[in-house]
Amino acid sequence: MKQLKDILFGVQIEAIQGSTAQTINAIQFDSRQVAEGDLFVAVKGEQADGHNFIEKAIAKGAAAIVCQEKPEGSDDAVVWISTQNSREALAILASNYYERPSVQLKLVGVTGTNGKTTVTSLLHRLFEKAGFAAGLLSTIAVKYLDKEIDATHTTPDPLQINAHLRAMVDAGVEFCFMEVSSHGIDQDRIQGLTFVGGVFTNLSHDHLDYHNTFAEYRNVKKRFFDALPKSAFALTNSDDKNGDFMLQNTAARKLTYGLKGYSDFKAKILEAQFSGMLLIIDQQEVWTSLLGAFNAYNLLAVYAVAKELGLSSIESLSIISELGNVKGRFQTYATSNGATVIVDYAHTPDALANVLSTIAEIRTKNETLTTVVGCGGNRDQAKRPLMAEVAAKHSDKVIFTADNPRDEDPENIIDEMEKGVRPEDYKKTLRISNRKSAIKAACMELQAGDVLLIAGKGHESYQEIKGERLPFDDYATVKEICKQLF
Questions:
Q1: In the chain, which residues fall in CATH 3.90.190.20?
Q2: Which single residue of 230, 241, 242, 405 could bond 251 by disulfide (Cβ 3.0 to 4.6 Å)?
Q3: CATH 3.40.1190.10 domain span(s) along the chain
Q4: Whether residue 76 has pLDDT greater than 80
Q5: Which residue intervals of 98-157 are DSSP H helices?
Q6: Distance of CA 461 to CAs 6, 150, 348, 351, 472, Å?
Q7: Which pLDDT tens digit goes with each residue over 323-375?
Q8: pLDDT tens digits, one per residue of 418-475
Q9: Taking Cα atoms as reference points, which of 204, 470, 477, 481 lies closest to residue 347?
Q10: pLDDT per position as a tens digit, 101-112
Q11: Under CATH, which number does the domain 101-320 receive?
Q12: In whole angstroms, what is the distance from residue 330 CA to residue 345 CA?
């Protein structure tokens, strides 16, 4: 319970009708959740407009309404607060209601197309191993101390974010590492949060069903860095052509990392095999079980953040050498007949190319590389032929299958994917829309030394089909099938 006048601090208010000297029990933006004495924030969403549910919220006992458009003939018994942007207001209200928890710990945000989950998860593990109480807000889960809550969005809504941060602060968490998605930035979910640092991993084709153009997608990412305070650090990948762009208007201290050109933090891959790779970071060698240039970038970003937050080079590299793969990120399984299966979340053309490039650098070419891949339904259609082109070009065999088809017919999605396959690669491809059947077909062909990549879903433990989330786990499915076959 909080005073309305206190939680309105920082909100851009255009008009107030009624007294703000009253107690608010909770903040809601879903009218179905409103109870007596709550504040209802009417948000214009992608699927519905909260302004259409103001009367319902009042009927359920809302004491105050924050909105962009006050309905005609509105009830004078409630307090009305008008604002130009109720989404932004919701985020600031949430931060105030939970007593600005982001200020009470050190919050680092990580954004980019690929690598967000790996970087945040590895940072969380590193700081825990270093003896700190650390928190994680990621695509996979929310974690702190012995708590673990399954995540539903890459960047949760502002009420969830601040509730989690409040719980972390109350539990004694000192550092929190958070994935910051383009949707989260664009929908003002991170307004009101105070970051001590921001990290940019890379940018490639993704989410253009939402952002319309690549420039719009890039500019949304940049807004995160534009908003960082002078006291924070902004760390970007100098080998990505968008790295410098992210830093243009930030007030934060500018830092870079990379494997190629000049940067503040540098790394080099000295050796790579399926068991891991040897890196040199800050003139010191470190062995890691993670693989690929993309993971070298991820580990370098982790190292740089750790140093900026006060850890020594020796301690950071020592712990980095102990860190294993993040679930669903180049996660390997060795079959009993000597083949290697890799499960990876790669669901963009660039991410898939990175994974296949890593495999190509390690394999001998005397074995067969098979890729099982699909594309999600009701999402960015432009990347479908690109995904198929990359898979077919860099694999010996490819099986196109369902990913999360949602409301689309998987066969139609595969049709669109196949448009990207080069004529010389058609003979490599096969289509099996049932994902389990596709994985089984690929596993049945495995011989000693062969490599099977199952891409697209990674850590996900479900398939979205016709409005339902049905249990499905790529890694568990592979283990089950391979134990039956070999």
A1: 331-485
A2: 230
A3: 101-320
A4: no
A5: 116-129
A6: 42, 11, 19, 20, 5
A7: 988 888 889 899 999 999 999 999 989 889 989 998 998 888 889 999 999 99
A8: 999 999 999 999 999 999 999 999 999 999 999 999 999 998 999 999 989 999 999 9
A9: 204
A10: 999 999 999 999
A11: 3.40.1190.10
A12: 8
> What does the longest C-alpha to C-alpha distance in the chain come to?
78
pLDDT bracket for residue 211 (50, 70, 90): very low
Mean predicted confidence (pLDDT) in 153-162: 85
How many other CB atoms are there within 10 angstroms of residue 314's CB atom? 10
Question: How many other C-beta atoms can be found within 10 angstroms of the C-beta atom of residue 47?
Answer: 4
User: The domain 331-485 belongs to what CATH superfamily?
Assistant: Mur ligase, C-terminal domain (3.90.190.20)
The answer to whether 41 and 24 are in contact (CB under 8 A) is no
What CATH class is the domain 2-97? Answer: alpha beta
Q: What does the mean pLDDT of the chain come to?
A: 93
Phi-psi region of 195 (alpha: psi -120 to 50; beta: other; left: phi over 0): beta
* Predicted confidence (pLDDT) at residue 414 exceeds the cutoff of 80: yes
Q: Which residues contact 408 (CB under 8 A, 6 or more apart)?
A: 377, 378
Q: Is the dihedral of CA 107, 108, 111, 114 positive or negative?
A: negative
Return the axis-axis angle of helices 313-320 and 116-129, rounded to nearest 10°: 110
Residue 154 pLDDT: 61
Whether the CB-CB separation of 371 and 360 falls below 8 Å is answered with no
State the span(s) of the chain assigned CATH 3.40.1390.10: 2-97
pTM score, whole prediction: 0.83
Place of tokens 């993670």: 290
Average pLDDT value for residue range 190-200 = 96
Alpha helices for 21-137 (secondary structure H): 54-59, 86-97, 116-129
